[in-house]
Specification:
six-stranded mixed sheet; alpha/beta; four-stranded antiparallel sheet; P-loop_NTPase; binds magnesium ion; globular; ATP-binding; 10 strands; ABC-type polar-amino-acid transporter; ABC_transporter-like_CS; Rossmann fold; binds adenosine-5'-diphosphate; nucleotide-binding
Length: 253
């Protein structure tokens, strides 16, 4: 272990999860999770349904409060009662399986509302930033549309542009393509691939093994609330050492 490793917070470390436990009643869902995400890293989390992937992601921005353990985001412990949680959360963008757009707001307004209300940006600045991010996801011709007028893939890309407009240090994606018709999955994955190439730090729960294999710097396989195996995509997806990982991959590949 080098001196750098032993420092409490390395400047390049965006997320550090230590001994995380989360229960819902008697259901012990996360059973001691430890992992980190470094600046610019793309980490894909895979695993069977019910293994705790969404709960883990929701613990990263403390949408779920863990019973035990620490969630440190850019050096700040979100589980510390003194932590200014709203400020800490502003650094984290989240994209859900169900896009969760505001149905009564235009595409542009979906991408400006939190900028003006939460970040107190001027309307003109928020507008400019929103337009730039909508262009980034290929939707600059849809800014006046309403969510219901868009395909699922377009709605999900708006959700990504909305999250990006808050300048997050970290993007969380929870199965962003699982609710989409198969022909719409590719466009969303293309946007995510581009984000990864741009250097965005990303934690992605996905069933898209080809995407994980190509884009992830690291793959984490979860089962039963623990990390069973993690490493490079070549190792974890291509040549898993654990039987539980092998069984899972046999079912999904
Ligand atoms: P995954 O995303 O891997 O499918 P989840 O994290 O959604 O798994 O769920 C893990 C377990 O936690 C499941 O047994 C689920 O029923 C339970 N769970 C998740 N969220 C809640 C909640 N809000 N209340 C009660 N139980 C929950
Ligand atoms: Mg889930």
């Amino acid at each position: 272990m080098t001196v750098q490793d032993s420092l409490p917070t390395s400047p390049s470390r965006v997320v550090e999860i230590k001994n995380l436990h989360k229960s819902f009643g008697s259901n012990h869902v996360l059973r001691g999770i430890d992992f980190t995400v470094e600046q610019g890293e793309v980490v894909c989390v895979i695993g069977p349904s019910g293994s705790g992937k969404s709960t883990l992601l929701r613990c990263v921005n403390l949408l779920e409060m863990p019973q035990e353990g620490q969630v440190i985001v850019r050096g700040e412990d979100l589980t510390d009662p003194d932590c200014h949680l709203d400020a800490a959360r502003q650094q984290i963008g989240m994209v859900f399986q169900q896009f969760n757009l505001f149905p009564h707001l235009s595409v542009l307004a979906n991408c400006t509302v939190a900028q003006t209300t939460v970040l107190k940006r001027k309307a003109s600045e928020a507008d400019q930033i929103a337009r730039a991010n909508l262009a980034r996801v290929g939707l600059n011709d849809k800014i006046t549309a309403y969510p219901a007028q868009l395909s699922g893939g377009q709605q999900q890309r708006v959700a990504i542009a909305r999250a990006l407009s808050m300048d997050p240090a970290l993007m969380l994606f929870d199965e962003p393509t699982s609710a989409l018709d198969p022909e719409l999955v590719g466009d969303v994955l293309t946007v995510m691939r581009k984000l990864a190439l741009d250097g965005m730090t990303m934690l992605v729960v996905t069933h898209e093994m080809a995407f994980a294999r190509e884009v992830a710097d690291r793959v984490v396989f979860m089962d039963g609330g623990v990390i069973v195996e993690q490493g490079s995509p070549e190792d974890v997806i291509g040549n898993p050492t654990q039987e539980r990982t092998q069984n899972f991959l046999r079912r999904v590949l």
